[in-house]
Amino acid sequence: MNKGRLEAFSDGVIAIIITIMVLQLTVPKEPTFAALVPLAPVLLGYLLSFVYVAIYWNNHHHLLTVCDNASGGVMWANMHLLFWMSLIPFVTAWMGNNPGTAIPAALYGVVLLLSAIAYKILQVLVVAAHPDGARLRAAFGSDLKGRLSPVLYLAAIGLAFVSPTISYVVYAAVALVWVVPDRRLERL
User: Fold this and answer.
1) Which Gene Ontology terms of cellular component type are present (predicted)?
2) How far apart are CA 59 and CA 64, in angstroms?
């Protein structure tokens, strides 16, 4: 399949994910700043999740620039990634509506972890399908961010049962590391 269809479909799903997240925000009944204070956890959760979705969209775009054609494996790996990303609005709302509680904070991390694993699978399959896979593997290098992120997600999931706030800080720290787009493919 032409990779353009895969990119267009993925862009559409990601746009819907962001739309669902913003539609879950409730407007305060009163037109005051004080009315926004109780919504702070929901708004911060939305901000964090928006950044994560933007990071995936950006890196997905960079990854697919080296994909000549989408094989069946690449298409299914892409669907796998989109599945886990499609759960981000749900866990974001649950976490935002239940600030400081362990299970929503931990499940948020589980979805982030499984999204990261799904992205790695997609990356491996795109490299395997590329005619110059060895050169691509070299461009990816040691992928310290890619290897460290799942470890941090696992730690944050466990820490959610000690202090959900610590989990939120870890999730935000991982996002900050990934805000800078992956330039390794651009150099290639």
Assistant:
1) membrane
2) 9
